[in-house]
Specification:
mainly alpha, globular, 0% strand, 8 helices, 203 residues
């Protein structure tokens, strides 16, 4: 069960999940289904499929490569690929005339992962919890902008965060400190990016 939870809420999938939540729980629900699928496909390609392909190629080229990237020194290149995918997604969404706060959040994801990359040189931080913390931060940011109170969504995301954090502890992939630091980094980065996008409307 711990492995299943870690796979279902893999960091590479969190951007796609977040985009899907935006389509289901905000005014973006009125967008036509073909457009939603096109945008979700683009986000999935740039933030999940291409980074996963890169990790696979790394695995093929190096016999001792680690699919789970448990060792800090092997995270640098995959992190850089993911950061590039996040920036590309932000530009893609901007070109698709999506609301600016969505592009801003993807830039927040890139900043969060850049900070995680820097921290990774000295200390291992949980990418799983960065993704889940960012998901909560994005939800709270959107709720603040549009005066919403999706308390059920908050409860679900918090519950999932607790389950995934417990799973990572059971698998002995991280310590409590690494999990909490990742969750805090993801939450703060995405929440602040949403606030900055809110101020953008008044510039």
């Amino acid at each position: 069960m711990a492995n299943i939870l870690s796979g279902l809420f893999h960091p590479l999938l969190m951007a796609t999940y977040g985009m899907g939540l935006a389509f289901m729980s905000t005014y973006l629900v009125i967008y036509p289904l073909p457009l939603k699928l096109w945008i979700l496909s683009g986000v999935f390609l740039m933030t999940a499929a291409l980074p996963a392909l890169f990790i696979y190629l790394m695995f093929q080229l190096k016999a001792d490569a680690d699919w789970s990237l448990d060792q800090r020194r092997r995270r640098t290149l995959p992190y850089l690929v993911y950061i590039g995918g996040s920036v590309a997604s932000a530009l893609f969404l901007y070109k698709m005339l999506m609301p600016f706060w969505i592009s801003a959040m993807f830039l927040g994801v890139a900043i969060a992962m850049l900070l995680a990359l820097c921290i990774n040189f000295f200390w291992k931080i949980s990418a799983h919890m960065i993704g889940l913390g960012g998901l909560l931060g994005g939800m709270m940011g959107v709720a603040r902008m549009y005066f919403m109170n999706p308390y059920i969504g908050f409860m679900i995301v918090l519950l999932v965060g607790g389950l995934v954090g417990s799973a990572r502890l059971i698998l002995q992939k991280h310590t409590c400190g690494q999990l909490l630091a990742g969750y805090g980094l993801g939450f703060i980065s995405i929440y602040i990016s949403s606030l900055l996008s809110y101020f953008y409307f008044f510039i």
